[in-house]
Amino acid sequence: MAPVIWRVSLSILLLTLIPGRCQTPSEDIRSAISDARIRSILRGMAVDFTEDSTGDSTAFAFQHDGHLVTLVNQIKGLSLSSCIEGGVDLMKANQWNREHFSTRAYLNDKRCASLASDVSFGGGATNQMIQDFVRQFDTSLVVYARLLANSPASPIGALAWSQAGASTKRMPAFPAATESGPGLLKIFSGVSLKYDPGQWRTTKSQVDGQFAFSHASGGGHAIVIVERTAVPLDAVEDVVLANAQSVDPHAAVVFRHRIWVKGVAFWFLKIEATVATIPMSYWGYFYAGDGFTVQVVTYAEKSRLPEYDHAFTDLLNGFTVSR
Hints:
With 323 residues, this protein is of the alpha+beta class. It has 2 domains: 14-149, Yope Regulator, Chain: A (2-Layer Sandwich); 162-321, 3-Layer(aba) Sandwich (Protein Transport Mog1p, Chain A). The chain has helices at residues 14-17, 35-44, 90-99, 127-149, 233-245, 305-317; strands at 50-54, 57-64, 67-73, 77-84, 104-107, 113-120, 169-170, 178-181, 184-188, 191-194, 200-203, 210-215, 221-227, 229-230, 252-261, 264-275, 278-288, 293-301, 319-321. The strands form 4 sheets. The protein has a 7-stranded antiparallel beta sheet with strand order 11-12-13-18-17-16-15, with helices on both faces. The protein starts with 13 loop residues before the first helix and ends with a strand.
């Protein structure tokens, strides 16, 4: 598996992590951190935990704000990590890693959005320093989870909005799309998306009518947006560009091509936009039919686009509409 480019390694001194804290002569500074000491500290913090020993390390697991946290004792250092269910937004993870130095955001080996922090106590640590390390991570975890749950506007959004013009008509919602098996998303009768389940996996979307995918390497993503909305096909590009420019005023459609597949017309658009200072590229098929629209959009950081050229093309070509 290719490494995720925004994953970083940190080994930090706790005195850097907690500025302004000074030692007092009465504090007991010990370099070794025994499992018994960790148990005592966690109990003193009123934390209910379980533990599991493997080799030279012991993992303590506990819940915080609905998230499972794992603390690994490495005798002269500690590691904390937690997985946040529901998928990860690459742009939000990049933003977090740029703005926070005591934690790192990454995808774990199970493709789950995770947060972690490490500390090395080369000169010894007091119990208070260890408590502060755990408490600061717990606070960061809550903030990170909320950041993922409340992502800002995406350059790719719904087509059903006022700038689509007076001819736009809102209709009743379609029944929810379903996965009829590995590699097939049935959007509704006659409309589906085939994909390679070895390359793509579905991730949870917080928005009805949207279906998200993540590439196995972690750097490529895709989204399917289904709307019960009548939008003229010729108006689609204008609305798509307006959505992108609501996030980045300099966003642009860098390639456009109207294609026909088995008598059905699509727009194939390539869009470039800068999101949270990161240049991004979006490739999408956009279909406007009688009473509904479907967007199938792939995206990645612009610098990594060559890695996903074939994967994006194959996914887009798996979108079919039958009359």
